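Weekly structure sync, notes
Attendees: PL (lead), two postdocs, one rotation student
Agenda item 3: pending single-chain targets
PL asked that the sequence for the first pending target be pasted directly into the notes so everyone works from the same version. It is reproduced below exactly as submitted, 804 residues in total.
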Amino acid sequence: MSKKQTAHATRSEDRIGNDPVFGYRALPGIADEMLDTQGNVRPVWQHFLSSIGRMDETELSNRFARADRYLRDAGVFYRAYGTKENSERNWPLSHVPVLIDDTEWQAVSKGLVQRAELLERIAADIYGPNRLVAEGFLPPSLVAGNPEFLRPMVGVLPADGHFLHFCSFEIGRGPDGNWWVLSDRTEAPSGAGFALENRVATTRAFSDLYAETHVHRLAGFFGAFRDELQSRKKHPDDRIAVLTPGVANETYFEHAYIARYLGFMLLEGEDLTVVDGRVMVRTVAGLKPVGVLWRRLDAAFADPLELNQSSHIGTPGIVEALRSGSVSIVNSLGSGILETRAFLAFMPTICRHLLGEDPVLPSIATWWCGQQPERDQVAGNIEKMVIGPAYSTRPFFDDNGQSVLGSSLRDTAKTSVAEWLQTDGPKLVGQEVVTLSTTPAWINGKLTPRPMSLRVYVARTRDGWQVMPGGFARIGSGADAAAIAMQAGGSAADVWIVSQKPVEQMTLLPAEESFIRIMPGSLPSRAADNLFWLGRYIERAEGALRILRAWHGRFAETANTEMPLLKDITDYLAGLDIDTKQPVPDSLMANINSALFSASNIRDRFSADGWLALNDLAKTARKFQSTVQAGDDATHAMTVLLRKLAGFAGLVHENMYRFTGWRFLSIGRYLERGLHMTRLLGHLSGEDAPDGAYDMLLEIGDSVMTHRRRYNVNTASLTVTDLLALDPLNPRSILYQLNEIKTEVEQLPNAFSNGQMSPFYREAMKLHAGLAVMTPEAMNAAVYNNLEQELGRFSDILAQTYLG
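Predicted structure, written out during the meeting:
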């Protein structure tokens, strides 16, 4: 084996500390991050600490509560895997930020820029000439046998010539003040959106201190990266999109947040297709080209045709599109190989070879156990080692049990370590146990030191690599560094990079008044589908609530479910799978939950207020399910839920931009309301309708007062039919819904073609005209039944036209 493959990352005296982090205990209330090497409080912390020192516990609690309330209202969450409970967890904010002096940060940034460029060079070699392996700088097995190595990408040069555009690095500081790289994140780095939300939430808690402190803003970093992606478009009509695995992903909230923040489309693999070597997005106006994809899914799942054939979240043909150079992907497919833990062992040598200089920021000391000297080194120092998979792409504290702490092994086990390393050495690495510095966290009413690592982001811009002035810190739930991971109970803190002079106030708004107005046709078909069904589910829930409220109101008066009207409505509701024995039926909850699910799939297009209103509705309905009794109690509960629904509808109506998405949401609501009233009138307005049916119809249709004003007679079949079916001014009538549907359809893409109505628009016109010419006397059960079928057919045609 070549000397260039020796895996000594650094001399032992240069490593992080002498004691394992698991045995390290900081002095009570004193955190390493606050102190310099002489034990004095760093100047960057002094103003912050003196300020909060003057606050009592009540004030601090109120400040922290403001931050938590913001995160709840914004719907910030992460997904916890492997739990039986609700997998969506509130974002665990550690309220006290981490403060770092700007001068020190410049040194860290220099090291990260160097490392990003080094990783770019390594990726270009692995998928290009492969000289690092040929010349002995990397063992062949760590590349060829690596599950992150994508052979179909060999020889595929990215359209813009760069393999990496956006990276993150997990870095840690030792108690001696030196920074180390714990891991590289190049596959699909997550957390940048959470860093933004941490900043907003933390400034809610410490708005006064933030204003007094010269903290570098984050907007400039994102603005520079957005401009870089814009410059990568080869055609003016190309779209830029964030490619997400979908709503079930751990960090889906962040994908939606980033897409909304930067003004990009949020797409899933099924939204895309490849036509003639170009990536196209399915929109309601047809296929539109995509020029840049910021992918947030693992590369192997991106193309089931050439990569992972079992993938259901990719797009067949993506690799071929990359070969043709028609699309840029951030980061390049296959870049995940750079995260391999064993690569850390060879970074110093490769850095000197490719860049002609030593690493500014050293990696954590790592030995690849595929060679005898390294196996002996690890076995001989097992007490200070963590042993884990060589191909792992996670730090040891994210491994979820894959790594073994040498000091935790029994004596009998330690004697067999050498044999284990000898047998499985090429599959293993040994890493020195690190002692992470601690940062203050507010625990049980006092500042408490907790181990910390930083996740920092680096983006390629027009001016070269740029480091985010901050990021976020991962804070341990205890003294154990393994508890830093979110899944293990860790939390996240904002990072303030503090300058000694005022900093520039950055914004994503352009400096000059120029803009391009994106046409409504950019709405992806999947998003239109979710908006359409969101409207339907919300209206379906409202219709059920109105019937149930009327039913329980009459039950409260009679307590007799055999009363003809109540029995008739009970049978009608049973046909809709609504059980009146349940004050808040399961089917009602199913519709509310379905509305939430539809909204969750379009978080990039849905307002935070709307999301909060929907969650509040669902939370209240779940509470009522276990507490409400039939009769007056249920009537009141239905009224409360209707008010919350009205609040959501008001938010949508008043605040949602009249874009194509709004039209699909509105059509869904109008269609479902029309179906609801059509079924009801067909069931209750016939000659055999039970006593009280017409009054109940008016109550359900929220038209009691209108009927009294418009008709100087008691309720009768003709007056109720006229008001609820044929009155174009009544927002609850069937004709009103059809009129609104026709109006919205007129504005949809391709409603007219060469001056002629599209088949879909023609169907909307026929539906409206057919009912508009009817009279109350002509309306009967057969007409209502036919109209119900026509409305269902109209929904199918809409799906075929725009949502396929």
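Discussion points:
- Residues 367 and 377 are 8 Å apart (CA to CA).
- The chain is about 45% helix and 15% strand.
Action: rotation student to compare against the earlier draft before next sync.
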